[in-house]
Amino acid sequence: MGNVVMAIGAHIIDAELTSGMLLAKHAMAGDKIVTVALTAGERLSNRGGMSCEEFREMNIASAAAFAKALGGENFVFDVPDGELFASKEIELKLARLMREQKVTHVLYHWRNSRHKDHEQASVISRYAAYYAALKAMDIDGLQPATIKRKLYAENFEDAIGYEPFYFFDVTKAFPVWKEAIMNFYAARNSSVRYVRYYEALAMEHGNLIGTDYATTFTVDECRRRVVQEYL
Ligand SMILES: [Zn+2]
What we know:
- By secondary structure, the protein is α/β, with parallel strands linked by helices.
- Helix content is 41%, strand content 15%.
- It is built from seven helices and seven strands; from the N terminus they run βαβαβαβαββαααβ.
C-alpha cells in the first residue's frame, strides 16, 4: 500500500507488544514497518542474572529480529532506561529519522502513564511527528514527511484515561506477531506475562467487533469527531 508505519516505544518491547499486531498486518499488506525504542529497557528488574549492558545488547538484537521478521527496520536510541526526558534535541533526532524513513503513520504511547519514560516518550513522539511534517522546518535539507495519521497505542501501563476508539481486525496477522514477539526475553521470562495479557486483550477486543483478534488505538478527545452530511 506504499505506507511507512513507525511504532515508537519508550523501551524495547513496548511498541512491539502494543502495536505489533497492526504492524504485522501492514507488513503483510506490503507496507514498510519501522520500530523505534527510545531506550533499550536495560534496567528491567528480572534480567536473569545478566548485567544491564549484557541485557541491553541482547534486547537490541531481539528488537532487530522482531523488525526483520516483519521485513522492517529497527532503531534504538542511546538513552539510559529510566532517564528519558523530552527535549528539542531528541525530538529533532526522531523527526530526522521520520523524514529519512518517509514515515506516513506514527503509533506511540498514550499521554498518561504510571511510567515516567512512557509519558516522556508520548511527548517526544508527538512533537517529533510535528517537526517531521513541518514544511517550514529545515532538518538537514530532508524532505518533510507526509504524516497521514498519528494514533496512541493501548498499553496497560498507560491505562489512565485511555479509551479504545479505533479497532483493527488483526486475526490473520496474529500468528506472525506471536512468533515474532517470542524473540524477546521479557516475552518468555518476565513475571508479568505480557504475551498472555496482550493475546487475551486482542481476543476481548475481537469479540466486540466479531473477529478472533483485534487491537485498538485512540486519539485525543478533541479529534474524536465523525463528519456526516445527513442523519
Ligand atoms: Zn516500557
